[in-house]
Design brief:
Order of helices and strands: HHHEE
Shape: globular
Number of domains: 1
Structural class: mainly alpha
GO biological process, one term: DNA-templated transcription
Function: Promotes RNA polymerase assembly. Latches the N- and C-terminal regions of the beta' subunit thereby facilitating its interaction with the beta and alpha subunits.
Helix content: 40-55%
EC number: 2.7.7.6
Enzyme class: transferase
Family: Belongs to the RNA polymerase subunit omega family.
Largest sheet: 2 strands, antiparallel
Strand content: 5-15%
Length: 71
């Protein structure tokens, strides 16, 4: 079993909740899978969710909290 880097302890301080992190990573992973936006981080994995989490850790993916959801 491979360990995902960055791990949850490194990512949690970058967002306001784990739910936000999961939602943000899932949305970004779908963008990568659909090829609507290219990967901005150096690819260290073939898994789209891992690449999304690396982009979040590097600060290349951000979010804005709205009353109707995350944008």
């Amino acid at each position: 079993m491979n360990i995902v880097t960055p791990n949850l302890d490194q990512l949690t301080p970058l967002v306001d909740s784990r739910y936000t992190l999961v939602t943000l990573a899932a949305k970004r992973a779908r963008d990568i899978m659909d090829k609507s936006h290219p990967v901005t981080a150096k690819r260290t994995s073939t898994r789209d969710v891992t690449n999304a989490m690396e982009e979040i850790y590097e600060g290349k993916i951000t979010y804005k909290r709205l009353t109707s959801g995350i944008k």
